[in-house]
Amino acid sequence: MRHALFLMSLGLLGAAFLAGAAEMAAQGLSGGLRVWMAAEEVWQILSPQTLMAIEQLIAPSSAVLWQAVELALQLPGWLLFGLPGFVMLIFFRDRDGNEDLEHEEAIFLYDELIRQAEEEDMNDLPAREDELGHGQYPLEPVDPALADAIIEDTPDDKPEPQKENNENAKTPT
Q1: Which of 8, 123, 128, 135 holds its CA 20 to 30 A away from the CA of 49?
Q2: Nearest to 76 by CA among 5, 21, 9
Q3: How far from the centroid of its chain's Cα atoms is residue 80's Cα?
Q4: How many other β-carbons are positioned within 10 Å of the β-carbon of residue 89?
Q5: Can you give the pTM of this predicted structure?
Q6: Tens of pLDDT along 78-91?
Q7: 2-37: string of b/e by CB count within 10 Å (b at 16+)?
């Protein structure tokens, strides 16, 4: 039901947009330029036959209802449709509260991790990155035999980089 009323509010806002365009067209046809025109006047300028047909349909059955319709048609059409459409849009829109909850969880994640570390008694790790050495975790001691094997695999005599003989190079004097 709520979603249907939200869709109805979008329809009313669309009708308000069309009523505003119709008002501009009616002002162009009438030759006058005013701040706003009543919906009844716009209807009379653009389609007088349909206005009279609606009046003949409603007035004989209920004069009070026709007076209420005439009173409502004294407002501009964009306001007549736009105000209820906007109010319905505000009240019947879908409100998903989970978005705020996800952001809140992300904001407090670091605090939660610190709390868990304190509970698990893991606060013996270095507190700062510079204590770890270049942002890495402390390494475990290396087995000396393994360290010797790694050193033996590395070539001792690295080829020296070749120097280019550039005769045109200028030397500072």
Answers
A1: 8
A2: 21
A3: 29
A4: 16
A5: 0.51
A6: 999 999 999 999 98
A7: eeeebeebeebbebbeebbebbeebbeeeeeeeeeb
Question: Does the CA dihedral 45-47-52-57 come out positive or negative?
Answer: negative
Q: How far is CA 99 from CA 83, 91, 106, 113, in A?
A: 29, 19, 11, 21
Q: How far apart are CA 97 and CA 117, in angstroms?
A: 30
**Structure tokens that stand for 163 in this block:** 């120097």
pLDDT of residue 153: 54
Alpha-carbon distance of 59 to 24, in angstroms, equals 29
